[in-house]
Every structure is written in C-alpha cells, then in structure tokens.
Amino acid sequence: MKEKVITYFFVGILFVFPICSLLIKDMDISSYERRKLTTISDLKENFVDNLDDYLSDQFPGRNLLISSNSVFDRYILGNIDSNDVYIKDGYVIDKNYPLNDKNVAGFIDKINYINDSYLKNSNVFYTIIPDKGFFLDDDKYLKIDYDSMYSSLKNDIDISYIDVKSLLNLSDYYKTDIHIRQEAYFKVLKEIASSLGFDYYSVDYDENILDNFYGASYSKVPSFMKPDKLKFLSNDQIKSAKVKHLEYGDKSVYDMDKVNGSDLYNIFLSGPSSLIEIDNVNSISDKELIIFRDSFASSFTPLLIPYYSKITLVDLRYIKMDLVSDYLDFTNKDVLFMYSTLIVNDSNILKVNVK
Amino acid sequence: MVFSSISFLFFFLPLLLLIYFFIPKKFRNYVLLIFSLIFYFFGEKWYVILLLLSCLVNYVCGLFIEKVEKKVCLVIGLVINIGILFYFKYVNFFIDNFTSVFGIDSFSLNVILPLGISFFTFQNISYLIDVYRKDVESQKNFFTYCTYIALFPQLVAGPIVRYKDVCDELDNRSESFTLFSEGVTRFIIGLAKKVLVADTLYNMYSSIMTGNMTVLSYWLVAFGFTLQIYYDFSGYTDMAIGLGKMFGFKFRENFDYPLISSSITEFWRRWHMSLSSFFRDYVYIPLGGNRCSFIKNIRNIFIVWLLTGLWHGADWNFIMWGLYFFVFLIFEKYFLKNYLKQGIISHIYTFVVVLISFVIFSITDLNTLWIYLKGLFGIGSSFLSSESIFYLKNNIVILIVAFLGMGPLFKTMVIRLKKGKLNKLVDVLGIVYIFLIFFLSVARIISSTFNPFIYFRF
Predict the structure, then answer these.
(1) Number of other CB atoms surrounding residue B21 within 10 Å
(2) Given B158, B173, B188, which residue is the final one in a domain?
(3) For the packed helices B366-376 and B316-331, what is the interaxial angle rounded to 10 degrees?
(4) Mean pLDDT on B129-150
(5) Which of A7, A14, A76 sits opposite B177 (nearest CB)?
(6) Which of A1, A8, A11, A24 to mutate to test the interface with B (most CBs of B within 10 A)?
(7) Helix (H) / strand (E) containing B29
(8) Alpha-carbon distance B46 to nearest alpha carbon in chain A (angstroms)
(9) How many domains does chain B have?
(10) What is the pLDDT of residues A261-291, one digit of tens each?
(11) CA distance B445 to chain A (A)
(12) Do B387 and B451 sit in the same domain of this protein?
C-alpha cells in the first residue's frame, strides 16, 4: 500500500505540473520578480539551452514556490539575511556588505577628478544618501561600517558636503524598495536649498497614489508582506516642465506609461536614463542645476523643479564622463553630486576615466 | 542536464517514464539508451559522439579480447581509454607545466572537459580488464553495451558501476512497485541532500569567503567545504541509485557515513567506495598490493594516491590532496594503527584531517590555499570578529542538521520507531516527510540560480 501511494503520488506530481504548464497561458513579465520571463518564443530559438529557464519561469505556482522557499530559508533555517535581505520592523533591507575600500577610494577619485577637470567655475556640492542598511542595529546584523565610509568621503572629497543622513530615518523609505519615498524628501530638500543657496519656499502639490508598488526587494521575502503605496506629488510647474531624454526624446516628469511596467518606481522620470534635461518654462528663477546622480534622485528631482529654470540629470552608470562634457557647459551653474551609499560601495560602475 | 533541474524533473523524467513503462520489455534498453544520450546532449552537446565512439572502441576491444588476441587488445583498449582521458582532462595541465619548466611560451589547446569522462572511462577500463580476466563474458550487443556505459543515472557523476554488477540486469531485470517506491524515496532524499543541505552550505561559505577572515571563519569554510562536498556527492549517488531502482537496476552503494570514521583508513573504505575499489582491484593489487616488500608496498600505495588525486582534477592541489592522504594512510598503517580505536579522539582526529583535506581539495590556487591553511591555525588572522560570529549564528541550524546527518542517527531513529507500536504512523509520517522535502527542494530549485554538482568536473 505504502509503495503504491509513493509511486502514484510521485508520478502524479511529475505529470500534473507539465500538463498544467501546457494548459496555462505563458506570462511575459513577472510583476512579482520584476523581470521578463522566458517564453515559448525563446524556446523556439534555442530549445536545448532555454528549456530549463522556460520551464522554471512558466512553472505553475512559481510565486508560491519562491515564497515557500523564502519562508523555509528565513524561518526554518534561520537565515536572517536570506536572499541577501534583512527584514526589520516590516522593512526589507538589502544587505550592503562588505565595505569595499577600493570602491570607496575609487568613488572619491572620480568625484575629485570631475570637480578638478570640469567644475572650476561652478557652485559644487555633494550629498550621500544612506541605504536602508544604515538604520540596522550594529549588534544583530552584518552591515558595513558607515562611519568609516562617511569619514573617508568627508576627509578626501574636496567639495562642500551636505549632510542629510542625520535627517533621515527608516520610515522615510519604501518598505519593499531601496528608495526613499518622494514625500519624505522635503527635509532633504530644505537642507540642500540652504547649502546651494536657493530660497526654499512652500509649494502646493496634488497628491497621487498608486497602490501595489512591489519594490525591488519584494520578491526576496515571503509574499505575505504587503506591497507599498507609491505617492507622487504634482503641480502645474511639474506638469508643464519639458523633459528631454538623450535616449528616449521628449517625456514627462511622471511617465504614466510605466504604471503597467515591471517597476512602478520608473514613473519618476521614466527610470534609468543617461542624460535628462528638465526645463521649467514657468520658473521665476534663472538658475540652472546639474545633478550627477543615481536612481535615488529620480523621485527627489521633481521637488526641485520650482526652484530652477533648468535641471540636468547625469547618470554616469549609463554615459561616459568624457561624453557628458561634450553635451554640457558647467560654467556658473549649481552642481550637485547626489549618490547613495550603494553606489559609493560599488563605484566601479561609474563610467569615469580618471586621468 | 542535472537531476536537480526543472527540465529533468518535469520534462525528461515523466517523458521517459511514460515511454519506458508503456513499451514492451525488449525495447526498454533502447529507450534508456536514447534518453541517456539526450540527457548527455543537453549538457555536453556534440561530445555525445565522443561518448558513442568510446563505447564502440571498448565494445570491439571487449569482443577481440575474448575471441582473438587477449593481451594486445587489452593494451590497445587501455591505451585508447587513457589517451582519451589524458587528452581531454590533463593535456592543458601538462602543457602549462611543461612550458613553465622548460621556459617555453605557454599555449593552450582549448580542450573542454566533457562531463563524466572520468567515470565512463573508468567503467570502460573495468569492463575490458574484467573480460580479460574472464570475470565476465563480453557484451555481444553493441546497444546493450552503450546502455551500460551511457545509462543516465550514473553517467556523469558515478558511482563507477562495474559491468559484472549490472550485466544480468541489462538483459533481464524486473521493475516493481516496491523497487520503484524505494527508488523514489532514495531519489528524493538525494535531491534534498543536494538542494536543501549542500547548496545552503555552499551559500554559507561563499558569503564568508567574501568578507574578512578570522580563525573561526576559516574553520567554518573548511566545515562548509567538507559537508557540502559530502552532501552534494552522496546526494547525487542517492539520486543515481534511486533512479536506477525505478528502472530495475540495483547499483552498489558509494558512501557509508564516511565522516564518522575513526581513522583515515576507515574513511576511505566508506567514501566514494566505487573509486576506492576500482583503484584497489585494477591498480593496487596488480602492482603487488601488500604482498611484497615494504618499499614496494609504499610505492604501490603512493601510486594509488597519486592517481586518486589526479583523477579528481588536473591541478596541483588535487595531487597534493591525494598525497596528503598517502602520508596519513602510511602513518596509520605503520604507526597509529593500534591507537586509533573507536573513541572520541579517533573520530575528532579523522574529522579534522578530512576537514583540512577538503580545504586542499577546494582551493586550486596554491597561494590562496596557503593563506587558508595558515588561517586555520591562527597564523596571520585574528580569532573572532563580529562578522564571523554573525555567520556562525546565522547558519547554526544548517550546520547542526548537516553535522547530525553525517551519521546514521536519523535512520536508526526511524528503524527503532518502526519496531514499536507506532509502525503505521511512522509510515504515514514518512510519506508526508518525503513529499514535504520534495516540495521544498522543487521550491528551492525554482528560486535558485543554476548550481551544478561538484563531481561533474571529474
């Protein structure tokens, strides 16, 4: 009896899943994992090499299985850094470890090089946004030595520093994503305004809320976590701003085409882009700002629009610094380096050839 | 293709089962052969032709050894087998060292190692020698011989199956519910050992190795290497034996709780038994074994362990690994024999020696290896750090489970419980347990990136 139960059950499982897989329509994109899935067309291209990816990606109950594995790993095996993320107070925190001293030194060299080579006649500042790991308890979690990182940056970067880390706390971040919520950026905005020397004044915004924001870290934890809500702030100046991407041409500040994409955070300035120019046609200021930035600045930049006539965003992960200098004139402009500690610790992805 | 992949579990295996059990018995070997070649093709593409050519050569040599010129054909067969193995596995290593010693500009033949070549070459060699010794008759049917060599459960990572052990089953075997369900149970246990234990240990030591190392970290890594290799390889063997049973084959065991041995001599009687017995029967004894002078006996043991090291890989660390065991085996044979009885000290001694051996085994770069060996004994590193303590705490559950699983504790518990009044309950819980770990293994495979078995590269 026992033998028959094991045999039938095992054979049943082996057959049920492939049959279900044949009956269920293939999915092109997984919003849970935020990526494109392997589909039957990939299989037709190369059956042998793509079969495993196809069957895994289209496996019936895939999300449930990923979540079950996460529960097993985190709660049965007790891996608090399962999938390289921690969970603290309901926040999913990516493990940013270990501290890469070479990359920190490389970051310093790159910023100093850009400043020395291109920004002699500019009003230059930098700020470093802490990733969520900054808010972990020292004794329980493995985290990089943020004090050492910030100390190296402050000592060795020859530019005025704007300290925003002391203004932030964990609740300013999305629970399932690495970024800071846009509405939590005002205290940072005030600090940056006082350093860069523009008058901060209160601006009215309309609040827009998108439910079900599955952040970048969501699929790394058991799926019983609730997704975030994504709030974005708008007003006439933001709506009328002209946004031009080097790659994609004209866009808007909030790209509503991205609502159905794999990453809702990409509604902020259409996601990854090498060079973006934002012209505020209704500006009362004639000041211009250039921001060297990573994705943290995508949700922050819209809040700066009322204070500048033109803002240019440069993402050196996607464009070489040598090319940037062909496009931009930095003379008499405000320049802000705004990077997260994640990029500082992984600075080799910045395309700056220090000479 | 690997057993712990979705394409194997939910495409290859159900399709094979469907066809295999619905066709007449006389065609089943052909089905197994075709599927075995497909299995190999998925991993190695056109090296499948090399596999078939190797089968053809050995099949013909086997016939000629039996019918015509015994010794000449055996020598030809051995030269071809060892030549193929040398070319595909050792030629780059040989060129690197030759050019380095003689100061010649280095060059490479860009030879890629075909999966499982060491296993199927050794099976071919054992077949030829056994036919030569008249231990078995040669196989007259080429397709049956190919089925023996290419049989997918043992093709790429063993165990090294002797022809005489399966020749009857190749021609006449019976499948049954009992054998099939035993096979399923064994397969799932092997899958869980690989996916839930070995891969978790791999993740543990990979994380530790990226950080700042302390003495504790070095020992955790050594522990991780040892247990991962054990659970990975013995898990693969369990799956191979389990799959064999599903199709009516009874392969010999390859592991017998080696990590609880009380001496290195005992360890090698329990670890990768099909390889140890191959070297014993086809190298050590033909060289004279221990029925010769002291010096010759030392020479014979040295040759066996040099070859054992080389068999595992074409790198100096593998040679060192083999010779490391040679030193301990000689020491035990002539000095420690009377001191190593069953006892906690003997077990600790053996475990520590094995632990260090797998550090040598796992690190191919000799400079890094030297750093690790020094690190284990506190040379040039501090004893503890918050980082190493974090990794110990964070992995304590898997470390304890893996440690307890080294011995027959769980098996003994089940046997005792089944002897009691709870026999039926134990059976039911056993079935639930098996399918629970199967579910978790599939969940882990779905969640993980591709992570092939360690022993494939041998």
Answers:
(1) 14
(2) B173
(3) 40
(4) 93
(5) A7
(6) A11
(7) helix B28-44
(8) 12
(9) 2
(10) 878 999 999 999 999 999 998 888 889 999 9
(11) 8
(12) yes
